[in-house]
User: What shape does this take?
Amino acid sequence: MRQTICFRIVSSFLTTKMRSHTYYESMGAARIMAQIIDGKALAKEIKDELKIKIQSYINLGNRAPSLRCIIVGEDPASHTYVRNKIKAAIDVGIDATTIKYDATLSEDELITAINCLNTDVNVDGILVQLPLPGTMDERKVCNTVAPEKDVDGFHIVNVGQLCLDMPTFVPATALAVVEILKRYKIDTFGRNAVVVGRSKNVGMPIAMMLHSDGKHDSALGMDATVTVCHRYTPAEQLEFFCRNADIIITATGVPKLIKATMIKPGATVIDVGITRVTDEQGKTKLVGDVDYEEVSKIAGAITPVPGGVGPMTVAMLMHNTLQAAQRLARKN
Assistant: This one.
């Protein structure tokens, strides 16, 4: 009897210790690193596919798909994002133009400008770069964009259709996450997924697609069992949910929020967060929500920051723009 009890105690101790990678190191075992999900390479693959599709679309007698990117103010990060989007669009054959306004532009003037693009038959996609100046109501502005030209997927009509599993424009970042999971063949059916972050443009649409029924019209449903956490989720609860997750998608902008102790061995970790920080040498760099160096020793697959979800977001925006052009061409 005493031998049995001792065996159980030792067995329990070893099971606990084996969850720590330091234990493996002390035993001299080879460290197993996560598969790095290369968003940059995957985005190039998708853009190469789009080039062919767009050229075929043009060969049928259609004009090139067109995209108009509106930016208000001088926020450096926003201008960098828009330049990247315009460059990617031109590379795949989309007629893309940036429309710049000073921060002094009024909300009414911006809405008038958007309405002009809504009625322009030569414009397929409209994107309003966020954030807008504090004097503007972002929700009101986003709802001004015609739903059929809303390639960002922010209009309430497109959000509602997404929630109903109907074909619609999906926000590019959320669509990027789903595309990564599908192209890397990450099994989601019945799996436990935790989405950390509940923003209406990222966390919410990701959670909607992860839990949706794959049999519905949208073809985006992934049949996962989804838990949504956020800034008010107690730390011990966040760790509990994450440790039981097969898939973790985090989008909070809180550096190193997700630590190695929170990861189930072999889990897939998708890091959508992006924050600019200053290191000890005074240099700035981009980091995600995940403690990448440590988590990559536990996870089965992980996205880096930068080079993970970011490039894929741009690629999926191009996908949405082609989709908008095709729909409007059929309608007209």
User: Anything to note?
Assistant: Residues 309-331 form the longest helix (23 residues). DSSP finds twelve helices and eleven strands in the chain. Residues 1-30 have pLDDT under 50 and may be disordered. Residues 70 and 291 are 34 Å apart (CA to CA).
